[in-house]
Amino acid sequence: MALQNHRNMIGISLNHIMTPDQMMLLYKKNGYKIDNVFQGIGFSGPEALSRIPRLKELDEETRIDCYVALFKEFAGFINNGTVSRCFPAKYDYECVPKPLHIQTILTKKMAGREYLGVKARSVVMGNREIEGLHYFDKDIHRNTVSDDAEVLFYIFCCSHKVIAVFRDVTGAYLLVVDNGNLYVYPLYGMTGLEPKEVLRKLGMIYGEKRANAAWHDRLQDEFRQEGFKSVDVTEPNLLQREPQGNDKDRCLAMTYVDNIAIASSLGDKSEVLKKAEKNLAARLPLTKEPETEWNGCQLTWQEGVLSKSVSAYIERLVEHYKKYYNFGSNKIKLPMSPALEKNLEFDTSDLLGDRFNFRELMGQLNWPIVKAFPLQKFWHQSLSRFMTKAREKHLKGAFQLLNYLLNNRFRPWTIKGANLKDTRITVYCDSSNCDEKLTGHTTTCAMLFVDQSLVFVYCKKKQKVQPESMMNECRAIYESWRRSVRIKRMLHNMGFHVRRKLMVISDSDSGLHALTQPYITDKAKYLPPKNLKIRQLYGNNEIGLGGVSSENNYADLDTKSDHTFERFNRLTEEIMDARVNIEPEVVW
Question: What is the rounded average pLDDT for all residues in the chain?
């Protein structure tokens, strides 16, 4: 058995021990066991599984998969130097600062409905970390890549007609060095330890409050060594290496926890991309991921066009809830019945309480809506207001929304490339204008398009109905401009030549009149100063204002519920197929 020295510690590596077939044979006989390899610590598969009662019900093949998964996780802790024996025998372990408990979670790996095996993940148990001892609040907050930045990454790929390269970092958090004086109880299955012995923690463990921030900083440092820097100060997880000198190779990288996506404007011919990938692989254990999937989304690449869907996730979600609702039988044409949506406030039936976890269902619906069904944010937000007081109508509305996603799961979100030399940003906006008088809420919506591709949908409900239509519409126009400034700056930094004038399109004549006339009307005098900033931008020719009829306003989809099916379906297809009309009907 070959041993390797890692961080001045002795560890073992799976490929140094035996072939997979030999390993499977040993597991099948009596479980694999290693003794006196790592400072006297060994591992027993049966011992680890004996601590998990439910595994006794599994068949022999699945139990062997669990052995393999547990051993890989144990070997990862050893190879990466995550834990170490730190005290001599017969030490008084009661004096050690409060150690952390570790539990191992086993999950099935699935590709659609295909079973791929078992994955083991050892995590810190529960909420047992103490602020000031195990972590400080300022050290735990880091963001993941935003949804609009992810779309901009795809637009970059489609504009240059290249396909991104996807990689996964194995055991990401375990690769981060932790110099703190912290301790953990042994993992299930560890043998050769003293009674009540604890281990010193020299690396980060999944579930720690500091782990995400520590890994985020480590990954950022790795990319900085390759010349990458953030595209924008607000988006640290979208990085790029700008062309240098006569080099026209622009590389873009996107990170999401332990997943990495890299693309170059030159595609496979990029030497910079190959060098960066080679150097990263030398310092991090990278595995190649298929180009057809990213973060649970199915991707279909064509020349200059990307289609994105989450059909597999929706099918699994329906499979989980099919005992509560007859999915697929009633093929509703709208995400929710308009009559039901307008009467959600007035349901007087008993609260669901512990009979059903409505909060969990709404959380599970949020992910596919954000990733592949952005036009259904309005319906999801209408239901999300009742997570703490859910009743039968709210549950029925959630199942109707899930049924709509099921019936449209194969309708992809299409993203097309933009014109690199003349990129246009267009925003459609609308306000419900007290459309929901019964509910007492007003909705503001903005949809931003880069050329014809949808980038994001902003949908916000206000709990108080505004008294004036014009004030609502002016607020919608201002919010549209405010959120587009960041997108414009990011596109410019990514090498796109963006038009100076941003086009905001609204169906409110009164709002457009108040913001474009040389004088301020009586009603406009009461607008907040931030909304009147649009007048200044309009005068400086930095923003263009256009009018459109309500029948053709895309933002109407996320502010009102009483649509005809023909209109709803027409506008939805134009947006999801990237066939949006970015020219206003009237230019103000």
Answer: 81
